[in-house]
Amino acid sequence: MRLLSCNILAGARVGSYRHYVTRVARQVLPHPDKQANLDSLVDTIAAFDVVGLQEADAGSLRSGFLNQTRYLAEAAGMPYWSFQPNRRVARMAASSNGLISRFEPSTVLDYPLPGRIPGRGALLARYGNGPAALAVLVAHLSLGAQSRARQLGFIAELLSDYPNAVMMGDLNSEAGNPEFERLFQRTRLLLPAATAPTFPSWQPRRAIDHILVTEGITIERSWALPMVFSDHLPVAAHLRLPAGIAIGAMP
Q: Is residue 168's pLDDT more than 70?
């Protein structure tokens, strides 16, 4: 199973810290570069089976009222997609998590995450049912360690009953930091043996985007894609699932 996780910053390209200031208009208003950036991701997305998006616009002024998750799914020929609106600023911006899949999930649920400032969420897809089910959770966590700890505790409760699970997203923290202890204690998710730096994308130094798996799921390869698309590099993994997991048939 091939997985990709990517914070796409609503299609805005950032190649240095100064772009947060000099290109602020492009981030809050529609711009042709955003469409070109989305199109540059299509072939990459098409090479994977399940894709998790963070900071995808759900359809507001800054994206030209385009649901970016749907656009990328359809352009990549991926038949199943879901999105979770998290934080809307009037009609200017509508951030969301997104899930794009080659396989049909049996269930997709979205959960608001606790935090001092509302607007973070987790999107949980289940493939199959019963002990043979695979849970895939896409999340975008807060910048503050205390809020992240609460959010990871909430996610631990969601995933505690799944023997086979994947958690991916922009977690805004190294996986070895203290706030992750509760997640690893209450679920079967494992601390990754190795992580690749993903932020900032133009000179990555911090490994804050992750694909975490439970024991029994083998990561055959994991890496960060060298794409200076947003301010995060995408992360990818090729997984070998345990025998008996039924993730559904492709259409």
A: yes
Q: Which helix (H) or strand (E) holds 220?
A: strand 218-224
In degrees and rounded to multiples of 5, residue 207 shows phi and psi of -90, 90
- pLDDT tens readout for residues 116-128: 888 899 999 999 9
Q: Which helix (H) or strand (E) holds 119?
A: none
For residue 134, pLDDT beyond 60: yes
Contact 155, 139 (CB under 8 A): yes
Residue 197: what pLDDT?
97
Structure tokens at 105: 């999930």
Distance from C-alpha of 240 to C-alpha of 131, rounded to nearest angstrom = 17
For 175-214, letters b (16+ CB in 10 Å) and e give: beeebbebbbeebbbeebeebbbbbbbeebeebbbbbbbb
